């Protein structure tokens, strides 16, 4: 697997460099993000984007920092900004190198001057430090640093106004600024005692953010500068610039903090180490003993579904079980009437609390079943009971053992795109993945309860799984062999979507191997791409293969074509479950398909989603928790398989003969043949299935609390 490398000859090519964005976080909610040439192309870009209070909101405080080399009374501005229709200054032409490890580093060359710039976000502090080193110079050289301030919510834009305070106030070897009284002070300091700050307040107008404009949003703003720092640098000498919400007490403190922090940085030397580093950036510690997962950078916040789905990949795959449990405990201690709160509640997403059980299944091998039951058993039982009693009039467990979820104004599943206040894919009814997750949660809780002697719970719930399984198979298994996406008042939805693969990739499954094969083959034929699974078959007239365009167009395509990486781990798990070790080469190929992504969009990470048509361009957030988690999960599956094969090289496959036969058939038949085979198997079943089917479908369309 390749290390992070960048074409030095292309760094001056803006079509190359502006498509590559870097990210650094402080692990407490703040981040630095911009392109590799430090030209902001989004409103979300900035050198210091951070929370200022206990809320979840973050603010762009320091947007940019311009560097100017002064030699022989000539100024060479190393910065790069986009204004309306033009770039000015064009400092990218001086860039000769960019490195990402151990910290983002840019090297500039201006004639005989070589300047190295190392950018460092300090962990667990809202602080950015940049060290400039004059590597080479043959004449007197001065360095000027001009900060550009925004002081606004990261989702908004700022414009010149009379309310902003353009003054700078004295601080230790620097100044402090605060454009508006509702914000904290921002301390701008250096470690070089003879550095001069020259007050020169001014507005710079019409910075242009091309990525925002391309996504259909307003993309122009004004930024304030209150002045600039200037100092002389000698060959081999360095200066450290610090921007922080806390004042540094001395220049020595700045030196020590930078040296200690950069020494602890890990080297992102290969594909997996990059993703492991990216994984750690999603987990943040909030005030009030809260541990949360940022769904994606730079614009997403904390969401329940993505928290549970991504946690195993971003924590457990690095043996960080304490981080995983801290995040789970943050939610379990706020349980109300047996249900999580806010965006973690089934009232917001019918599947969200059920992913909690799946996360626990991944946690169990690291802490043991007994410890897990002692810690989370009561929560598990309360959540199941909440579903049985009904949640917010939107989610209810029906008499047939299936979960019905319905809401006209809000989508109840992960397919939650909205246009004009209406769900793009409503999917009201029995959703395939919700009920697969329900069955998995139910079986897992019963298993732990039985192992730990909770006879009362077992007696009360033990008959439900079979009822759920029977109803699920009766309703969801289509004549074509694959599974319906959901069952609504009008019957089964036959469009080919990826949600059915979740029913094949969970530990407890309701469907037999023939149906699993049919699902896998259908997904492979219609939905599988090198970057993940499409959200709709290209043969469907609603399919949209590109994620470009206006917000309306992107919202529509997001769940009607666009590729999502997180679904891929369930496809890989399902294939391993059916094909065993023979699937290993294909799994490794799937993993290798992401090698280039860590260098072409969000550096060192995997983005939110991809176009559904070749060349499968990355779209959305540059770094997404469940995308990174899924790829790390796939890597873990592969490593576990390899380790087991190495430990037992002569051990024969102990799977049942039927599973072997099915796996062999899957490798030798087309998707059409697999579907035909499934139909033949179904026709061979007893004729009594038809009248039962009629009765159950009637139950599916009856009025419920959710209606």
In words, what does this structure look like?
By secondary structure, the chain is α+β, with helices and mostly antiparallel strands. The protein has 20 helices and 34 strands. Strands 1, 2, 3, 4, 5, 12, 16 and 17 form an 8-stranded antiparallel β-sheet that branches. The chain has an 8-stranded antiparallel β-sheet with strand order 8-9-10-11-18-15-14-13, covered by helices on one side. A 3-stranded antiparallel β-sheet has the order 26-27-28. Helix 9 packs antiparallel against helix 10 (455-461) and helix 15 runs parallel beside helix 17 (625-647). The protein is elongated. Residues 654-707 have low confidence and may be disordered.
In short:
Helix content is 34%, strand content 24%. It is α+β, with helices and mostly antiparallel strands and 707 residues long.
